[in-house]
Structure formats: structure tokens, C-alpha cells
């Protein structure tokens, strides 16, 4: 029996796949995530053995689990592209057109450069109809409603990659039959492509009719759209590229994370190279937190934001809602490439408070209070920390745009004595921004819970960039 399982990793919106044949007992995993136990569980569920682990390309947004999975199961080899590849670990090379027989089905590698030079996609066909694929695992070359961005390797390679991407889309994908199902490497929310659709898969025919990336009559128009419309490149992507090219450390279990009593936690927090992350909700953080901590709530998107905010060589010190959350939070963090943990606060903030150590607060300013201040001319400087597209779509009148992903560097030019209020879509990213500012010595910072969602729900006025440009 044919088996196909999709694994969605929330937060980084990454999609990986297990495909197998219960008759032969052989299975492949395509683009496994860092914490690989889930693929073992799926293999056991279907009674198959993982024999092949395929990498479509050198990933930039998460740490690959390919080497860890192969070692963990003991029955698999890792297969990587042999075309313009920069892999620096032992793996089996895969050539364009090479096929792999799993019994009832076959996987055929096709070189599909553009997002990266070495990128491979894998056509899926029945063994008895090997020349008639019914699906394709597209990696980061083609998404639902989008395509892989060609600018992640830097401006020096963008032009060539954009041309390669055009050729991949128009001379490979658009020549497949309409009924061919596409299984991409990412879903909505990933920065590896612009405006990726919500659905986890699609068909070539549907994308042919609806995907803007497949609608351009010539390369020049395509290039202007692709290069000009891409979201900002997360700063940690180049670092993860290096990690994945070199070969990530094999992780057979989560790294050790010691439980530290408050006195030891306080001591460690003062050591060089230690970053203090409070993973509680924004309102809990606002009510009282360890001085110097940055609030990144333990939601799935924590993976991406830890990657954005901290260097890979920093040792992470955590404050949790509950000690039992330690493993769940660790799983979110290791996906961003971080594996060095200084410890977590045993007993949480209750233990910290009972020890008599100092607390710091972060003001939570509801939107109606922000609006009152604004109407009276007494309000703070308002920082919109959302992405550029969100800002251009509408923002609080008088706000300044300061994308949170850039704030590690940009806030150095702001006046630390001035009062600032930060907002995003819901308050999550705004709390990252405001806590970062507070940790850098800003004396009066407020977070806006509910943020843009609450502002618009209250019916308050909205300003748009294009309206300003006509003023």
C-alpha cells in the first residue's frame, strides 16, 4: 500500500514528507526538520523502514534533521544534489534525472535551480507508469501561490538565480500536466517566498491559472516582480545556510538544559554571552519580569523570532510559564539553530519573587488609552514594528515604521529618554520589540496588547502609505 504523510512544522511553516510502500517496507523522508522523532513514529505507524532521506536544497530557515534522522533510524542514507552543491558532509550524490525505486512508486530527481543553485525537486510516479508523474515534491522552488525567492545568497547571485528560477518555473513546472499535485517545502508564513498561500498543496493546473509567478510573458517583467516584491531577508538565514552546508551536529536527543534556582539563575544571567528569554505571555511579562529579559512567547513562531534576535553562539537562559514546558520550548528553539542552553529558572517567576530579587515591569497600554493620549497631544512616539507590507496596508496615524526584525541594530539611533509605544498585529512582536528596547536601556517603553487588531476593531482612524505619498 502506498503511504504519504505530510508534516507541518508551525512557526517556521515548514513542510516535510514521508512517502513509502508497505509492500516493500521502504520509505523516504524529504526535507526532515531538526527534531526527527516524528518521522520514526510515522514509519512505525505504517510498518515501513526509512531507507532514504532526501534534501531538496541547503536550507536557510531551519536546521536540517537529515543527518540526525539517518543516524537515528540506522537504515537510511542521506541523498543530496550533485549539481553546483556546496555540501561539506558525507552523503550520496543525486544527479538530475536519477530515479529511485520503492516498489509501487518511484521518485525521480529533477534539477530545479533558482531558489538555490543546487535545488532538486522529486517527481512521484507509479512504478508501472514511471514516465507519467502524478505529483512533485517542489521543495522551495514552487509554492502554493508563490515561488522560492532568488535573493537569499546575496546580491551577487540574485540575477543568475532569478534567471534560473524563471527557467525552472516556465520550462519545467509549466510543462507538467495540470493534474500533477505539488507538495511544497513551505506553507503560509515562511519568508522563503512572498505571500505563500494557506493551502498545503495544489496542482500544476491551479497554479497555472492563479499563481502570479507563472503569469509573466517575459523574463524582464518576471525579474522586476520577483526581486522587487520579496520580503526582507531574515538576518539569520545566511548563518543557517552555513550550518546546513557544513552538516548540522547530529542531535539524538534535546540538549541538556539545567534547572537553576533563583540565586544561580541570577548569577548565570550576568555571564558574558548569555541571553535571557522570557517565554510567558506579554501581559504576564508586563506585570513583572527578570531585569534584562526579552519577551518571546512560547508560541510556534518562537522558532523564527529566537533565530532573528540572537546569535547562534549565545547561551540561552529561559523563564517558563511552567517547568514542564521546558522540552516543548526547547523543541521550538533548536529548530532555529540554537543548541546552547544556560538553563531555565526552576519554579519560574514565583520562585524569583519569593527570593526577593528585583522585578522590572513593562507598561501595557491598551489601544483606547493610546488613542486618548494621541487625541490630547500627550502620547508617546508610536512605533509600528510589523513587516513592510503590513505597514503599507495601513497603520496608526502618526506612527513610525521600525520593523522588529531590524531592531537589533536600528534602535541604537533612537532617543532612550523618549517615551515609545510599540504595536504589531496582535502584540506578540510588539512585546519582543518593547522588551528589547527596555533591555537596551530605554527608560519609558509601552507595549500595546491587541495592537493593530484591537485598533481597527475599535474603529479608530487608519493611515496608508500611498495616501501619504499624495499629500
Strand content: 15-25%
Strand order in space, largest sheet: 1-2-3-4-5-6
CATH third-level topology of the largest domain: Metallo-beta-lactamase, Chain A
State the end-to-end distance.
65 Å
Question: Average pLDDT value?
Answer: 93
Please name the CATH architecture of the largest domain.
4-Layer Sandwich
Main β-sheet description:
6 strands, mixed
Rounded to an integer, what's the Rg over CA atoms?
24 Å
Number of strands: 24
Overview of the molecule:
The protein is an alpha/beta fold and 471 residues long. The chain folds into 3 domains: 2-246, Ribonuclease Z/Hydroxyacylglutathione hydrolase-like (Metallo-beta-lactamase, Chain A, 4-Layer Sandwich), CATH 3.60.15; 259-354, 3-Layer(aba) Sandwich (Oxidized Rhodanese, domain 1); 363-469, Oxidized Rhodanese, domain 1, CATH 3.40.250. Helix content is 31%, strand content 22%. The chain is built from 17 helices and 24 strands. The strands form 5 sheets. The chain has a 6-stranded mixed sheet, with helices on one face. It has a 6-stranded mixed sheet with strand order 7-8-9-10-13-14. A 5-stranded parallel sheet has the order 15-19-18-16-17. α3 (155-171) crosses α5. The longest helix is centred in the middle third of the chain and has 17 residues, at 155-171. It is globular and about 70 Å long. The protein starts with a strand and ends with a helix. 46% of the residues are buried. The model is unreliable at 467-471 (pLDDT under 50).
